[in-house]
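---------- Forwarded message ----------

FYI, see the IS66 family transposase record below. Original note from H. follows.
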Amino acid sequence: MPKNLRREPRVYELTEAERRCPQCGETRAQISAERSEQLDYVPATLFVVEHVRCTYACPHCEGQVVTAGKPAQPIPKGLPGPGLLAHVITEKYADHIPLHRQERRLARQGVELSRSTLCDWMAGAAQSLEPLYDLMKTLVLLCGTIHTDDTSVKLRDSERKIKALARLWIYFGDHLYPYNVFDFTRSHKRDGPSLFLKGFRGYLQADAFSGYDGIYAGGNVVEVGCNAHARRKFVEAQKTDLTRASTALAYYRQLYAIEKQIKAELAKLPEDANEPTRAAIRLRVRQERAVPVWESLEKWLKEERPQVLPKSPMGGAIGYMKNHWEALKRYTSSGYLSIDNNVAEQHMKTIATGRKTGFSLGVRPAGRPWPCCSA
């Protein structure tokens, strides 16, 4: 059991009658105790905080009256305390429990709160968290590498009774500031990432979305491809071209095995080893072991490309690799880069989980609570 959990001892003893020896009648003495642990749970409890602000007046001077201040609250003049607000935010954005289900949970505890009230709380919380969100965004833009990905999400307008698809984007920093900062846009146009990444200089690891091309064209941002994305195309091609797909996947097994070897080598370092030391090891191993694999893979792709139909699954997989070759192998030239973009894609999977529970965004206030409360 985790050592940080509170322990609640429950000692079971024999009664005086049970302690008596059946042979001689003497009282038996305790010689040891058997211990075991059991995990239990106490449901969350609501309580009311009564804020009492004392007022003082000078008995001799007229008008010298002063009232004690109250600590700043997450939502000024709002009903929820910080603990309840944090609980609702966590359940909605981390555990993907919709507000209508939270509404029913609260009702079971005797507190009637409408879903619209909970929505207003999310908007108020986002407003309070916005300075922290802006700081995290600023720090992520100072990183040398940013991982990004996006996914669709339903956008609803209850007044106009329409629904549309909007986008949620994640921008994940590197070892300097490993924060995940989200952004919301109403469309999948390139304006979203272009505006968010304005002023950024460094590596951007993403899929091959054409909306990033304008960012790379400026020269300040260098494209790093996602090999997990490229590999999946060969997995899909197994259905129609098993032999070639198996060969390509064998190359990828070698490349990912090298990354696993690097992790094992890094695990031997002292815990206080700095990132430049770790990056130097990654670069050395990749240059020694991964680059030759990439050279063999490139030769194989050149041989096979003329023999497959361009519009077939295998032709698409090979074409994808050839079109993004430099970006896909760029990680071998730096120990600070990753072989794939899985760190961002895994965060996006939480959105997919939320979609299964009917997750959507309201038009007002334009999806702002989601990025601020999820970061």
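H. also flagged this: The chain has a mean pLDDT of 90.
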